[in-house]
Amino acid sequence: MVGNLAAAVAANRFGLGARPGDLERIKDDPRGALRAQLSGSAPIVHNEALSDSASILARAADLRADRRESRRDKAPAVQDASSNTGDAAMLPEAVQKLSALFRSHYVDEAVFRLQTAVSSERSFIERLVHFWSNHFAVSVDKLSVLGVAGAYEREAIRPHVLGSFKELLLAAEQHPAMLLYLDNFQSVGPNSAAARVRERRSARGEADKQKLGINENLAREILELHTLGVDGGYTQTDVTEFAKVITGWSIGGGEGRLRGGDPGRFYFRAALHEPGPRNLLGRQYGEQGVEQGEAVLNDLARSPATARHVATKLARHFIADEPTSPAIERLTRAFLDSGGDLPSVYRALIDEREAWAKPLAKFKTPSDYIYSSYRALALPVPEGAKALAPFELLGQRTYAPGSPAGWPDRSVDWDGSSSVLKRLEWADQVGQRMGSLTDASERAAQALGDVASEHTRTALKHAESGSQALTLFLASPEFMRR
To answer: How far apart are CA 369 and CA 388, in angstroms?
Structure first.
C-alpha cells in the first residue's frame, strides 16, 4: 500500500483524522511519519483554567466539611423529630453544590480534550492517550469521579503513554480517580489496626455506624481488565488476596480514620492495611506496606498473559475487530522482548502488515466520527457545554463509558441503524451550517485521499447544494470508517 491510500490509513486509523494538507505532507512515508510522532515525550497540554485533581478533591472535601459543620451547629437548636427533616433538607443543597463544582470542572476538561484532539499535530499520540484512558477506564456516571476524570487522563495517562506499561499501570491504579471509582480508598483489612480498634470499641459497647471491610472492586478489575485479562489464569482466591494487598491505598484528607496525607492525593493508610505476607498467583509477597502492592503490579506488568491481553486490545483497535492470531502474537512478543516498553510495541504495530491491509477495516466510534469531522472541516470548537452536545447525541458522552470495561471497540457495538441515523442527523446539521462555506469535494479529497470511492466522489459533484454535498461527505461509508 503506497501513496494516499497508506497516508489515509496513517491519518485516520492511527490518528484521529486527516486535516487539510495532512495526506499530502505524509504520503511519501506514512509509516515514518507515525514513527516520528513517537520521538520525545508525550505532548503535555497546558491550560491554566484547568485544576489538578488534588485541588478539586480538596475543595470538595471543604464543601463536605462545611455541610457537616452546619449540621452540627443546627442540631442542638432542634429537639423534636422535625430536626431530622431539617438535616435531610440540607443534604440536597450540599449535593447540588458538590455537583456544580464537579460539573464545572468536567465541562472544562471535556471541551479541552476536544480542542486538543482537533488541533493536535501528533494525533497518533492523542489516539493512544484515548486508548489507554479507555483501557484504564473511570466513568463520570459516579459523582465523585465527575470532577476529576479529565485530570486523571492528564495526570496518570498522558505522561506515561510513551513510557513503560509498568509505569502507566502504577500511575493509573494509584490515582485518586481510580481509587474513588472502584471504592478502594475505604477498603479495610479484617486484621488491620483500624479493624482492631473497632473491635475494642465494640467490646466496650461503643456504637460505630461505619462498616469496615475489604472491597474487591479494584483488585478484580486490575486482574480482569487492566493486566491478565479474563482468561489470564487467576482465581477468586487471587482476587481476594490482591484486595488485601492493596488495602490502605487511599486518598489524603478527611476525618476520623481517613485523617492524614495531602488532601486529594494518593496516600497509603497503614492503619487500614491488612498485615502479613500474601500468596498471590503462585508467588508470596512479604509484608511491605504500600510496596507489597507495587511489587504485585510490577509482576503483573511483566506477565505473558498481560502482554497478550494488551496486544489483543491494541490489535483490535488498530487492525481489525477480529485480529489474526499471528498479528497478536507479534505484538505480544514485542511487549515481552522490550519489557513492556510501549513505544517498542507501537513501532511493532506500525510495522505490522495487517494494520495496512484493509484501509476501512474499523467502524468509527462516535467520538472518532466527531473528532475526524472537526479535523476534516477545520470546524471551530464551540465554547462550554455546547461543544459536548454531539457526543451526547451520538451516544458516547466524554469520560462516561458506564463500566470499568470502558467503551467497546467493534463495529457491531456502534453500527446499528439507530446509531447511524443519529450520525446522519448530526451530519445534516453540520451540512446546513457549513455547506455554503466549504467545498465538500475538496474536503473529501483532503480527508480520505484514494480511500474515497468513485461513487462517493460522483455523488458529491452532483449534489444539489453545498449543504447537501457536505452532508453526503460526512455520511459517506468511507468517512464512517477508518
So the answer is: 13
Q: What is the pTM of this model?
A: 0.93
Full residue range of the structural domain in which residue 374 is found: 366-480
CA nearest neighbour of 180 among 121, 237, 251:
251
Is 261 in contact with 267 (CB distance < 8 Å)?
yes
375-404: burial string, b at 16+ Cβ within 10 Å, e else: bbbeeeeeeeeebbebbebbbbbbbbbeeb
Tell me the pLDDT tens digit for each residue of 356-382.
999 999 999 999 999 999 999 999 999
Residues 459, 382: one domain? yes
pLDDT in tens, 313-329: 999 999 999 999 999 99
Single-letter amino acid, residue 434: M
Given 254, 284, 302, which residue is the final one in a domain?
Answer: 302
- Asked if the model's pLDDT at residue 227 lies above 70, the reply is yes
Average pLDDT over residues 218-227: 98
394 and 452 in a single domain? The answer is yes
Average pLDDT, the chain: 92
**Residue 413 shares a structural domain with residue 467:** yes
The kind and range of the H/E element at 283 are strand 283-285
Residues 6+ apart with CB under 8 A from 187: 213, 214, 215, 218, 243, 246, 247, 248, 249, 272
Q: Which residue has the cell 485521499?
A: 449
